[in-house]
Amino acid sequence: MYCDKVVELLKELERSREDTIPPYNNDGINQVLSEMKTLDAEIIDFLRKQKDNLPLDAIRLRRAAIERNKRCLMTYIWTRLQRLKEMRWEIGAILPSDVRQNLSQSEIEWFNNYCKTLVSYMKTIGSDTGLNLTQDTKPPKSLYTEVRSLVDAGKLELESGEVLILRKNSQYMLSRSQAEPLIRQGILEQVRQ
Amino acid sequence: MYETVFTALFRLRRLKSLGRLGKHSSKTNKFKFQSSDRLTAIRSLLEKLIILFILSIDILNKKNYKMLFSLFPLTAINNSITIMDIDIRELIDDEDDENQEEMTAQKVLQNVEQAWLNEKFSPEILPHQTDYVECLLEQIKGMEGNLAKLSKTDPKVDLHKLELERIKFVITSYLRTRLKKIESFCVRVLEEEATRSEEDKYLSPAELQFAKEFALNADNHFDTILRHMPQLYNKLDRNKKIIEPNLNSFVFLKCNKHIDSVIIKNTLEGQEEEIVLEDNSQHLMPYSSVAEFVKNAFFIQIIIYYLCYILISTPSKYFNIKNVIYV
């Protein structure tokens, strides 16, 4: 049946968790594209052969199938972009290699451009160095927050100039602004009260 | 003193922005002085000339307050350094009082907070408040500088720091919300922006730049796939990729100033109803009815965005994955 493959693609995407990106299914996309081409060729064939009584219904069906394929492919790409965009805000400009492997060339390009656009926007806020919008994502309840180190991360220079050595499984009180990026990178873990 | 200069300048800007809306035009050269003594008269005239000079910076340079920050560093607040012993307020009060608002740092913060809530709860993008935001950022920088000078054992330091963190959160959250809206409604926002005149753009220049680049980038990416489709089908038309904010969604709102007439359209029956919004009253109504008051100078405070919270990362119908799979 027409359009089966593309729906398969979308289901695969929908089944995955919202905060992950499944591998870019290049084969699947190529198959859908070739199906579209075949359908188009069939339509042109109809038009060439039978000039008098055109099989209108057959043509309409194929056109609808092409449109649907197109729509689904666009949705596939669009949904992936949304997830990628979320990742820029969550993880930051440098993607972990396992995510990077799952992206297509064009998606990596898009991501790099998006980072560039975002950074150049953030630089213009305020007068000199700009403002990092990916920080301060939650309303602060207290100045300090209790965190546990998940790895031996080594030295961390505090805002006050003191140096702290992060050891695995030990707990610290850190200022929120400093802990936040480290929590997002997975070095620290917030200890919930 | 510093505070007063700051206040006066902000008032002036405020007046200018009101003038832009066509309600009031600002004049600075209207002041009279009564003085019996000739010497005092000359002296006060000289002083006023100095002040006028400072105010004229405002007209020459849009980033006036930044210059002033460098002229009167923030440390001057507490140390009561008097540069000129005349209150700038006198000068400004000669103008009619109705259209004036105090613009202290406190007021700026309030305005930003209000802008933030409105931005957060309104379905469409609102006019930008970059002036206030930048002013607040300058203040934060100054306060951080001041805090660094205090001793670390002072209990006040932590309190102030927490307050600063809160203000920072408000600012970043405000700008983030705007970015999210720009991203979601990119095509639509750019189209609307193109029809607006230079003075009442909703986006700041930097945001506009961001929107344009974002749209271009997305189009390029779509094109890598569209390119391989058969002719006739290898374009994505505007109507399909556009995402529209739902202007008819309902909002809870609080009215800050008395508004004589608000028209509520009943789209089902094709009727219109006109109501009066009292000062401080609270209502639940479609956003579209009050949109212009939300945009113009803080007439209305939206409290909750009520129906269908679909604002962030709303797919257009065309792109909605659930719609596509389960037809």
TrEMBL record, chain A:
Swiss-Prot/TrEMBL keywords: DNA replication, Nucleus
Signal peptide: none
Every GINS subunit domain range: 62-125
Biological process, per Gene Ontology: DNA strand elongation involved in mitotic DNA replication
Compartments reported by the entry: Nucleus
Entries under InterPro entries matching the protein: GINS_A, GINS_bundle-like_dom_sf, GINS_Psf1, PSF1_C
Cellular component terms per the entry's GO annotation: GINS complex
Domain DNA replication complex GINS protein PSF1 C-terminal per the UniProt entry, residue ranges: 141-191
A Pfam family reported for this protein in Swiss-Prot or TrEMBL: PSF1_C
Subunit field text: Component of the GINS complex.
Homology family: Belongs to the GINS1/PSF1 family.
Function: Required for correct functioning of the GINS complex, a complex that plays an essential role in the initiation of DNA replication, and progression of DNA replication forks. GINS complex seems to bind preferentially to single-stranded DNA.
PANTHER family in the cross-refs: DNA REPLICATION COMPLEX GINS PROTEIN PSF1, PARTNER OF SLD5
UniProt protein name: DNA replication complex GINS protein PSF1
Organism: Aphis glycines (Soybean aphid)
Automatic annotation (TrEMBL), chain B:
Family: Belongs to the GINS4/SLD5 family.
Transmembrane helix as UniProt keyword: yes
This protein's UniProt keywords: DNA replication, Membrane, Nucleus, Transmembrane, Transmembrane helix
The UniProt record lists the keyword Transcription regulation: no
Pfam family for this entry, one: Sld5
InterPro entries linked: GINS_A, GINS_bundle-like_dom_sf, GINS_Sld5, SLD5_C, Sld5_GINS_A
Top-level taxon: Eukaryota
Principal location listed in the UniProt entry: nucleus
Transmembrane segments: 293-312
Residues annotated as domain DNA replication complex GINS protein SLD5 C-terminal: 245-296
Subcellular location(s) per record: Nucleus
GO-annotated biological processes: DNA-templated DNA replication; double-strand break repair via break-induced replication
Protein's UniProt name: DNA replication complex GINS protein SLD5
